[in-house]
Design a protein that fits this description.
By secondary structure, this protein is an alpha/beta fold. The chain has a single domain, classed as Rossmann fold (3-Layer(aba) Sandwich), CATH 3.40.50.300. About 55% of the residues lie in helices and about 15% in strands. The chain contains eight helices and five strands, in the order βαβααβααβααβα. It has helices at about 20-35, 50-60, 65-90, 100-110, 115-120, 135-145, 150-175, 190-205; strands spanning about 10-15, 40-45, 95-100, 130-135, 180-185. Helix 1 packs across helix 8 (about 190-205) and helix 2 (about 50-60) runs antiparallel to helix 3. The chain is globular, with a radius of gyration of 17 Å. The chain starts with 9 loop residues before the first strand and ends with a helix. Bound molecules: adenosine-5'-diphosphate (ADP) and thymidine-5'-diphosphate. Thymidine-5'-diphosphate binds near residues 99, 104 and 107.
Amino acid sequence: MIKNPHEGKFIVFEGLDGSGKSTQAEYLVKKLKQEAAKVHKTFEPTQYLIGGLIRSFLGNDWKSSADCLQLLFAADRAYHLEKEILPALAKKLIVVSDRYFFSSFAYGALDCDLNWLIKINDNFLFPDLTIVLKSDPKICIERMAKERFSVELFEQVAKLEKVWQNYEKIIARFRIDNDIRVIDGDRPIQAIFEEVESILAKKNKDGWKS
Ligand code: ADP
Ligand code: TYD
């Protein structure tokens, strides 16, 4: 994977569905804008053509293999980097993304080989900072939908538990060379955001080299 060669900073929020990524990304972008920083907020899967194919796949409109889906996520990311992330970083913007390649590794490894997933993402830029929200799968599911049948809820919890184990595996693998912070996502929104702010403040003070 490639280090960011640009002056702009690339910040990614990761975690389970319902862990609060979009909320924290929004808070951060709002705060950076208040400070008059040049910032660009984005997300994956994207709103572009390949992102649309992915959403229709996830919505069961069409079917293919798990490998095909992961290749689509990688293609969506290649396009996202080319058209949006890299141009913004080159213009010295702070790019804040809700999900990036750790999502491919953590979710994709449920059905695909992790080393293959890493290989198909190998040409991509590593974020300058990845903030992973660690939230109890049960809390994530409660946040997403309060009214569900218990069996379905149990299946979902079991799946998210496996996804979280994959997150832990990849964090251990990549944190040696990269700045990856795992923070407790089971607190109130404002308490989590205060930690996000303090991470950013420290990086701005000490420098962004990971
Ligand atoms: P994600 O982007 O990780 O799927 P969201 O930010 O969309 O998660 O949050 C999912 C739901 O939980 C939203 O309704 C949001 O308002 C709520 N939420 C987010 N963070 C918290 C938190 N720390 N405590 C309680 N509810 C939260
Ligand atoms: P997301 O857009 O965060 O979900 P939603 O729009 O419903 O809030 O992501 C959709 C799902 O795709 C989510 O369960 C995580 C999964 N995902 C992967 O499996 N691989 C990836 O590379 C990405 C970016 C997401």
